[in-house]
Structure formats: C-alpha cells, structure tokens
C-alpha cells in the first residue's frame, strides 16, 4: 500500500538512509514500495541523545535507517537499554517489549516504543525533581517547628 507524505517547505525526511529536503512549496511524495522512512520531527541527531532513553532511541533510529551498520547499532542499543533498565526497574516491562521488537527486526515499532521510554524517563525525572525540591522545604519546616 503506498504511503503519502506531505512535506512543508524546508522539511526533511530520511528515506532508506538518504536525507531528502523539500526545497520548494508544500510537496507530496508517494512512496510505492517498502522503504525505511523517518520524518524530521522523529529524527534524533547525535548531539540530542544526552539522556539514557535518548541514546536508546538514537541507536534504534540508526539501526532502522542504516541497515549496513545495523549490527553495530543493535549492539549499542542493547547495552544502553540494559543500563537504563538496571538503573530504572520500573521501565523493565517496556524494555522487554523494545528488546523483542528489535530482535524481531521491527524497527519502526521499536521507535514507537522508544518514544514511550522517553516519556517514561521524563516522568521519572519530573518525580525526582519534585521530590528534591520538596526535601529542603520539609527540612526547613521541621527546623522551624523544632521537629527532628
């Protein structure tokens, strides 16, 4: 089944490893065969992968769009995922889904799951930051009331 892609002026898309940029007005591309396609909004650049979940996404992305280097990126993905799940046990079920998708070579599905991992990471960091911000306030309140 053909895939129709609408590209805004200046928008980029990666098709089978080639970066394609719309140099004119809005453009529609019809992809008629099986291709590895990633829109600009879904691309994580090398400098963007500063978080552990971001690195997981980055390596899946590269395994998807660079099949010639897939083994290298899958190995890096596995290491990063293991590190993430070891550090954050609440991500274990999602990590196993991700691992299964990559082992089954369902890379686009794995990218969707990796977006969930990014969201999970954001939620965990948000909870941590709120707890860290609340701790000094609680300590100050206890000091004022003379409680230990």
Describe this structure in words.
The chain is of the alpha+beta class and 148 residues long. The protein is built from four helices and five strands. The strands form two sheets. A three-stranded antiparallel beta sheet has the order 3-2-5, with no helix packed on it. The longest helix has 39 residues. Strand 2 and strand 3 form a beta hairpin. Helix 1 runs antiparallel to helix 2 and helix 1 runs antiparallel to helix 4. The model has no long low-confidence stretch (mean pLDDT 89). It folds into two domains: 43 residues, no CATH class; 96 residues.
Helix content: 55-70%
Report the sheet-strand fraction: 5-15%
Radius of gyration: 20 Å
- Please state the overall shape, judged from the principal axes of the Cα atoms: elongated
Largest sheet entry: 3 strands, antiparallel
* Broad structural category: alpha+beta
List keywords for this structure.
2 domains, 5 strands, alpha+beta, two-stranded antiparallel ribbon, 148 residues
Short description:
The chain is of the alpha+beta class and 148 residues long. The chain has helices spanning 52-65, 70-87, 92-103, 107-145; strands at 3-7, 12-15, 18-21, 27-31, 37-39.
What topology emerges from the helices and strands here?
Layout: E1 3-7, E2 12-15, E3 18-21, E4 27-31, E5 37-39, H1 52-65, H2 70-87, H3 92-103, H4 107-145
Antiparallel strand pairs: 1-4, 2-3, 2-5
């Amino acid at each position: 089944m053909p895939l129709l892609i609408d590209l805004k002026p200046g928008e980029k898309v990666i098709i089978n490893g080639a970066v394609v940029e719309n140099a004119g007005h809005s453009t529609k591309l019809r992809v008629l065969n099986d291709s590895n396609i990633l829109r600009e909004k879904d691309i994580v650049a090398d400098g963007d992968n500063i978080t552990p979940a971001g690195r997981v996404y980055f390596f899946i992305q590269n395994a998807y769009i660079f099949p010639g280097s897939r083994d290298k990126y899958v190995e890096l993905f596995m290491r990063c995922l293991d590190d993430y799940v070891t550090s954050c046990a609440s991500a274990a079920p999602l990590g196993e889904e991700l691992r299964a998708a990559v082992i089954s070579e369902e890379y686009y599905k794995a990218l969707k799951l990796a977006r969930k991992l990014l969201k999970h990471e954001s939620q965990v960091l948000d909870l941590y930051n709120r707890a860290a911000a609340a701790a000094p306030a609680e300590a100050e309140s206890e000091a004022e009331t003379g409680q230990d």
